[in-house]
Amino acid sequence: MAGRPPVAQMVFDAASARIAALGLELVDVEMVREGQSRILRLYIDKPGGVNLEDCSRVSQMIDPIIDNELNLHGHDYFEVSSPGLERPLKTDRDFQRYQGEWVELTLYRAEDGKKKFQGTLAPCPSGLISISLEDGTIRQFPREQAAKVKRMIKF
After folding, report:
1. pLDDT per 10-residue tile (average), the chain, 155 residues
2. Of 143, 27, 146, 154, whose CA–CA distance to 94 is shortest?
């Protein structure tokens, strides 16, 4: 799983502690193109989930930092959002927090003829992703082989 682009990392570094002071976690920062627009998007979270007021407070606090302190103007829109229920897992903290949750792992390259594996996230030793499959077997994959790992809602 690749790291953040330099601009996104710069925003993450400048905003993370400030957002933590509000009792929230900065999960990720991305710069994406949607149509003709470039969007700088921050994802925040807290136990129990975030609400519109949380997003608004972070937006009002971080927008001036982006414009004035970091002097970044390469985006058309700035958004603050929740990572959602089926959020991607990226950090050691994510892999700890969501142990026991149903996840889907997508590999860059097929293993045993498959690129996608679903199961319960098991304790993950450093650098590995461990998934308990439905048949009870536990599979481990090096993190660098994972294109994406995300929580899934199982019905």
Report:
1. 81 97 94 94 91 97 95 93 86 86 95 94 90 93 94 83
2. 27
Tokens of 2: 């690749």
DSSP secondary structure code for residue 99 in this structure: T
In single-letter form, the type of residue at position 114 comes to K
Residue reference for tokens 């976690």: 25
Closest CA to 98 of 69, 131, 147: 131
Identify the three-state secondary structure at position 145.
helix
> What architecture is domain 6-81?
2-Layer Sandwich (3.30)
| CA atoms in the 13 A half-sphere facing the CB of 119 | 19
Domain at 92-151, CATH from 3.20.80.10, 3.40.50.10260, 3.40.50.2000, 2.30.30.100? 2.30.30.100
